[in-house]
Design brief:
- The protein is of the alpha+beta class and about 475 residues long.
- The chain is about 60% helix and about 15% strand.
- It has eleven helices and eleven strands.
- The protein has helices spanning about 5-60, 65-75, 105, 135-185, 200-290, 300-320, 335-350, 370-390, 420-425, 445-455, 480-485; strands at about 80-85, 90-95, 110-120, 125-135, 330-335, 355-360, 365-370, 395-405, 410-415, 460, 470-475.
- The model has no long low-confidence stretch (mean pLDDT about 90).
- The protein binds adenosine-5'-diphosphate and magnesium ion.
Length: about 475
């Protein structure tokens, strides 16, 4: 019921005031009673003393009329409730009571004091007794009325004081405290932007100002911490990414190095016998031309010569491709040759899964500018990814096209797949991300490709809009390339 501070204080003050009031009124009442008792006694004595003077003569004369008149006169006094005039034979000569009382009822009424006043003649003969019924009820009633009035006034006054106090406490103490409390509570939910804008009186105002200052500081350091945190998070992710890229680059380089060594060894081993086969097939062809050998062998021997030339070419390309061309100079190179060589290297894998390959140059470009080997690695990577993705499909094809827009040469690598799931799209450019089984995928292809294209100042991205699975490479057209067009 008394939950708020102001109502509790008000109730306390109210209780104190009321108790004080009651104590005060009791003391006052007792004093008043004492005073009126004395007053009552005094007036009884005065009346008692005066009574013989009034009744002496009429009693002597037995003048009933005068006795009646005197009695009536005395009864006008409110303290006198009844008078009995008793003669010497103890018989009642005359009696009169106010307010319809009688002697019996008055005997049993509280606050009644009875005085028997003997009336004696001057010759010392007794004339009779006047019995007077005094009542102090009037005094009591008066006292009570006074006290009641005082209590009423005092209580009204206390109520007024308490209401005023409640109002003051509520407005100047409780409301500010509630606002302060709310503000403090809101900081629990880390709402440090909260401020107290109201003007509070005295110390409360100071508390509010201090609170605002404290919040200002907390917010400042919170913001600082937040930005430091963000910075740190950014730095960590940036650094992790860099490290991943470096690791990927390293692995790629060492992979290429061992592949390079391996293919150099193999090509050396193959090239020698191949040179012998090639040389001998040429000799045989010469024999056919000079008529030493029958013409029917010309077809097969030409084929052997052509095939050995093709093998030589593949080996040469393999050696080139299996080399880390990162430090190669950028230069103009011919698109047709570039695509031919890529196709030659990718053919084995494409043919194995019976995947059709198509190249379309839809631009006026005949040359591209950049590091030929790394760029061919990018496209072979993409063709390999396509071949992995679609090998089990019914419809199997990979298309490479070159277009030109205002500022760049646009190379699109599209396969017959139906797009890459969004969950993979977001991660696939990260180094080491792969969905392929262990030993098959390294997760390096796309991230290395991205690095190579960035190194060319170009763009490399997955095209979400395309109907099939499509990656786009944009290489900027610079002054070198413009000259070639
Ligand atoms: N043409 C594509 N079709 C479907 N998924 C692809 C294609 N190209 C790349 N991906 C997905 O991207 C992942 C990462 O590719 P990549 O970086 O080349 O690493 P890896 O080929 O070793 O897995 C692949 O594992 C595959 O899930
Ligand atoms: Mg790959």
């Amino acid at each position: 019921m008394f939950k708020s501070l102001s109502s509790r204080i008000s109730f306390l003050v109210f209780s104190i005031v009321i108790s004080f009031n009651l104590v005060l009124m009791t003391i006052f009442y007792l004093a008043l009673e004492k005073k009126s008792k004395e007053h009552f006694k005094k007036s009884i004595d005065t009346i008692t003393n005066s009574i013989p003077n009034y009744y002496q003569i009429p009693l002597w004369n037995l003048d009933t009329k005068v006795i009646m008149e005197i009695t009536e006169a005395f009864l006008k006094d409110k303290t006198i409730k009844g008078i009995q005039v008793i003669d010497i034979d103890s018989s009642i000569l005359y009696q009169k009571f106010s307010d319809g009382d009688n002697a019996t009822s008055l005997f049993n009424t509280p606050l009644i004091e009875i005085r028997k006043i003997p009336i004696i003649h001057t010759n010392s003969n007794s004339l009779g007794i006047i019995q007077v019924f005094f009542s102090s009820k009037n005094y009591h009633d008066e006292n009570r009325a006074i006290i009641l009035r005082m209590i009423t006034v005092f209580s009204l006054f206390s109520f007024l004081i308490v209401f005023a106090l409640y109002y003051i406490l509520n407005n100047f103490l409780r409301n500010p405290l509630v606002i302060l409390l709310k503000a403090i509570a809101s900081t629990e939910k880390t709402q440090y932007s909260v401020r107290i804008h109201q003007n509070f009186p005295a110390e409360l105002g100071q508390i509010a100002t201090e609170f605002n200052k404290a919040m200002e500081k907390v917010q400042e350091s919170e913001n600082k911490l937040l930005s430091q945190n963000q910075n740190l998070e950014y730095l960590v992710s940036e650094r992790t990414h860099q490290l991943d890229e470096q690791r990927a680059q390293m692995i790629n380089s060492s992979r290429l190095a061992s592949l390079g060594e391996f293919s150099a060894g193999i090509s050396h081993e193959i090239n020698n016998p191949l040179a012998v086969i090639h040389g001998n097939s040429r000799i045989l062809l010469n024999h056919i031309n000079s008529g030493k050998l029958d013409r029917q062998f010309e077809g097969p021997i030409s084929k052997i010569k052509l095939m050995t030339e093709r093998i030589q070419k593949i080996i040469k390309n393999l050696r080139t491709f299996a080399r880390d061309g990162e430090k190669d100079e950028k230069q103009l190179f011919e698109i047709a040759k570039f695509i031919d060589e890529i196709h030659l290297l990718a053919k084995v894998k494409l043919d194995k899964s019976q995947i059709a390959f198509e190249f379309l140059n839809l631009s006026s470009l005949t040359h591209l500018y950049g590091q030929e080997v790394p760029l061919s690695q990018v496209i072979i990577n993409l063709i390999n990814n396509s071949a992995d993705a679609i090998s089990e499909q019914n419809e199997k094809w990979v298309k490479v096209s070159i277009e030109k827009d205002n500022h760049s040469a646009v190379i699109k690598i599209t396969d017959s797949g139906h797009g890459i799931p969004a969950t993979i799209q977001t991660k696939m450019m990260n180094p080491f991300f792969t969905t392929k089984e262990v030993g098959k995928g390294t997760g390096l292809g796309l991230s290395i490709s991205l690095g190579i294209i960035k190194n060319h100042g170009g763009e490399f991205y997955y095209n979400k809009e395309a109907k099939n699975t499509q990656f786009i490479i944009k290489l900027p057209i610079n002054e070198h390339l413009s000259q070639a067009i």
